[in-house]
Amino acid sequence: MTIDNLKIPAVALGTWAWGDSGETGDGYFGSLLTRGGLEELADKAHAAGFTLWDTAMVYGMGRSETVLGEVLKRYARSGYQLSTKFTPQAAGTSDDPVADMLEQSLARLGTDYIDLYWIHNPADVARWTPHLIPLLKNGKVKHVGVSNHNLSEIELANRILREAGFRVEAIQNHYSLLYRSSEQAGILDYCRNQGIPFFAYMVLEQGVLSGKYSPENSLPEGSNRAKTYNGMLPRLKALTDMLTSIGRKQGAAAPDVAIAWAIAKGTTPIVGITKSDHVDGLVRATSISLTGNEIAELEALADAANVNTRGWWEQEM
Question: Total domain count for the chain?
Answer without folding.
Answer: 1
